[in-house]
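Quick entry between incubations.
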Amino acid sequence: MSRWEPNARGRLEQAALALYGERGFEQVTVAEIAARAGLTERTFFRHYADKREVLFGGSITLQDFLVRAVAEAPASAAPIDVVIAALEAVGTLFDERRDHSRRRQAIIDANPVLQERELIKLATLATALAGALRERGIPEPAASLTGQTGIAVFRVAFERWVNGAGPPDLRLFIRESFAELKALTAGG
Amino acid sequence: MSRWEPNARGRLEQAALALYGERGFEQVTVAEIAARAGLTERTFFRHYADKREVLFGGSITLQDFLVRAVAEAPASAAPIDVVIAALEAVGTLFDERRDHSRRRQAIIDANPVLQERELIKLATLATALAGALRERGIPEPAASLTGQTGIAVFRVAFERWVNGAGPPDLRLFIRESFAELKALTAGG
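Done. Structure below.
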């Protein structure tokens, strides 16, 4: 099959998430994902390097988005506000796919190796944010501290959002987590 | 050789760090580490599960120390102050071994798989700190946010300390990083 397959990438992702959820990530083969999607293995490998990339392929896009948002923020903005605003802007993209995020998170929570991969992804995002801040002239250690703190806020907000019952609004959770961080680190 | 070997663990650690530094972590075998230390492979495996544990075996001790320090902090102390004080107490233990930490860090910096392991270790410490705070009655998300923020402060402080030329004083770097975090998150 070399003909164009409408929305092959999305169909493969849906099939993979369904199978990982049913049987666990380790037990599922690429052949099974392709079959469930009504596509060939060859089509799978045109879209994803391996079955793990179905879960983590979006992290490059996310990183690019955050780095660009930091680069384009007003010059006068404080570093932490730049990072939080970039994360809030990402929130809107996540809100459209909360059901997808929930299913993905359940798969990751069930597999220690995927949990480690997720931690590495988040640490890489913190490093990328620090790099984007240095590009704006923020020195170290402020740049790294701000990048890591921003990701700490995001992690806590994401966890509440993904498990939440109310309307999906990741921005709101980020704002609340940031307010909480400010309260926690104030005084002393 | 089943006789008692004086300071076998320390000798194996020294030999392993020297070899990892000379030839890269991946290239070194347990047999070579044992030979360099003048000990047998069997003795190696009485002390370490594998060659990676030589670098990461201390993380359980570190975690236990931090969790205990959080548990024993005065009831009236604010969560972030409890965590920072626990990390500062750990600083003294690190100061005695800065040369060792430097050699270990150089080995980790040269190997992406070890870098990932180090990130996972730090994330695990953040989770352990959050758990210890919950035991003190701190609710979520404050407990997780505080644990992660504390580890962000520690990471930045540790990096400056391990690369620093002055007298080894990790507590001082932790204090400075925490002061910087407070300044970064204040206002707005």
